[in-house]
Amino acid sequence: MGDRQKLEESWARTTAHLMAACDILPTAVDKSWVEDFLHHNELELALDDLEVMADDLEGLSVEFWKQLSAAAKSMGLGQHFERYEARIAGDDKV
After folding, report:
1. Are 24 and 63 in contact (CB under 8 A)?
2. Which of 8, 18, 31, 34 has its CA nearest to residue 71?
3. Which of 33, 48, 54, 76 is deepest in the core (most CB within 10 A)?
């Protein structure tokens, strides 16, 4: 398997995690901006904006944070990953 193919598979996995997180958001939330970022392969921007949006919402499931955590891990974003894992563990001070 070539490097380009590995990279594209990584992008596909990350995109799937970000879309799964997006699908968890309430239906009233405008999700077109996430889709636009993903269409342009701006995965970290999509991740960051999902996090900011989530901070303004209440009652999101742990699954939302698990999807963001998996996306961050896939992208090698250690600080993001640690922050989301703390959310999953119930540490809301992060």
Report:
1. yes
2. 18
3. 54
Q: Please check whether residue 61 is in contact with residue 90, taking contact to mean a CB–CB distance below 8 angstroms.
A: no
Question: Could you read off the pLDDT tens digit of each residue along the chain, which spans 94 residues?
Answer: 789 999 899 999 999 999 999 999 998 888 898 889 999 999 999 999 999 999 888 888 999 999 999 999 999 999 999 999 999 998 654 4
**Longest CA span, the chain:** 43
For the entire predicted model, the pTM comes to 0.89
Q: Is the CB of residue 41 less than 8 Å from the CB of residue 11?
A: yes
Q: What is the DSSP string of 16-73?
A: HHHHHHHHHS-TTS--HHHHHHHHTT-HHHHHHHHHHHHHT-S---HHHHHHHHHHHH
How long is the chain? 94
